[in-house]
Amino acid sequence: MIENLLLSLESLRANKLRSFLTMLGIIIGIASVIAVISVGNAMTSSVTSQFAEMGINNVSLGLQMRSSDTGEDSGGEAKVPKDTDRISNEQIAAMTSRFPEIETVSLAEEAGRGKAKLGRKFSNVSLTGVNPGYAKTNKIKMTLGRYVSDTDVKGTRSVIVISDRSAKALYGSNEAAIGQTLIVYTDKAIKAFVVIGVYTYVETPGMGGSGAMTSEKDLETSGYIPVSTAKKDSPYKGFTSLTVVPRANIDPTVFTEKIGSYLSKQYEKNKNWESYAYNMKAELESSNKVLGTLSIALAAVAGIALVVGGIGVMNIMLVSVTERTHEIGIRKALGARDAHIRTQFVAEAIMLCVTGGLIGIATGVGLGMVGSRLLGAPFTFSPYVLAGSVLFSMFIGIFFGYYPANKAAKLNPIDALRHE
């Protein structure tokens, strides 16, 4: 066997250009398949990471308009739910008591946008009313001080947690901001808050907060105040949406159905509004399924190049058999069996395909890394793909090399010796 491999290697070296051109189809095929799979895996990993950041197990609850066949035609008045339609604090408390699976509930209420000013210094701030659970669902990291507490919410306190960007823009440092009175000028009012904490601002690509897209002067960050303080001047005391965080080891799909059914019953008699409940796990599974199917489809299309490459290998091996007919006759005359001849040519085909496969793997990994970087996704590569690529290259060599090898093995030695 080793002798056959050495003979195959010698034959490939004797025809370097022809061997490379023959391998080109295999190289392109393997490289394309690996690049597609690598980019597909990178996209799947990126999507999974993004969903995890948003809280894959969290359950979103809220209200939506009923379809026109069941809702009242009120001339557009039902587009904004009345306070009696909204999810009240009492409903939220009852729901929390009803379901021990709930770890925390996240509430948020937009409270206006404006400028926080201190002399000639200013910082753009978007006021958001929150409860303590909001920090968990949005992964807010405190730099200094504390976050909004239940006591702040119950006492409707005029306190605020600002970003480290705002703290440095207004006060020069995070430490200097704590305990200071912050004046925020919105379109509707001038509001004063005591700064109780500073959180770490995280730039989010694609959002208005991307440092690459927005200058420090125009950057707008959130200022978190108690949700009760945000609701103080609002005619609406209830909520149209909220997020529930289940405890660890709770199946989010089952829990979503349970809590969704519970809330739905409370809106059975409401003519304009109905409740909804969903979690992102189902969306993630659906997204990964689509990406997986797309990757397989693209890999299958790229795999056509492998078939074309295999046909090229068969073609060049047939040419090689014709060119080496006299050599085959001499070997048979010296006692070489059909199996020896067949093995030599199959080994040569395998050598061509495996060499092309290895070059294709290196090329595919390189393309995959470039593609992943362009998409902003982490590059991932499975060793199973590497092993599969090598084995598939060997299979292509055996499958497409067997017919020429068998043809060479069946040559009549006398006729072969006469061939010039």
Helix-strand layout with pairing:
Elements: H1 2-14, H2 16-54, E1 59-65, H3 89-98, E2 102-106, E3 108-118, E4 121-130, H4 133-137, E5 142-145, H5 150-154, E6 159-163, H6 164-171, H7 174-177, E7 181-186, E8 190-199, E9 220-226, H8 227-231, E10 241-246, H9 252-266, E11 273-279, H10 280-323, H11 325-333, H12 338-375, H13 383-409, H14 413-418
Parallel strand pairs: 4-9, 6-8
Antiparallel strand pairs: 1-10, 1-11, 2-10, 3-4, 3-7, 5-8, 7-8
Helix pairs in contact: 1-12, 2-10, 2-12, 10-12, 10-13, 12-13
Subcellular location: Cell membrane
InterPro entries: ABC3_permease_C, MacB_PCD, Macrolide_Exporter_MacB
Family: Belongs to the ABC-4 integral membrane protein family.
Notes on the protein architecture:
Belongs to the ABC-4 integral membrane protein family. It comes from Saccharibacillus brassicae. This is FtsX-like permease family protein. Residues 19-258 form the MacB-like periplasmic core domain. Its main location: membrane. The protein is an alpha+beta fold. It folds into two domains: 1-52 and 286-418, no CATH class; 108-248, no CATH class. Helices cover 54% and strands 19% of the residues. The chain contains 14 helices and eleven strands. The protein has helices spanning 2-14, 16-54, 89-98, 133-137, 150-154, 164-171, 174-177, 227-231, 252-266, 280-323, 325-333, 338-375, 383-409, 413-418, and strands at 59-65, 102-106, 108-118, 121-130, 142-145, 159-163, 181-186, 190-199, 220-226, 241-246, 273-279. The strands form two sheets. Strands 3, 4, 5, 6, 7, 8 and 9 form a seven-stranded mixed beta sheet that branches. A hairpin with a 2-residue loop joins β3 (108-118) and β4 (121-130). α1 crosses α12 and α2 (16-54) runs antiparallel to α10. The chain is elongated, with a radius of gyration of 34 Å. The two termini are 28 Å apart. Residues 206-212 have low confidence and may be disordered.
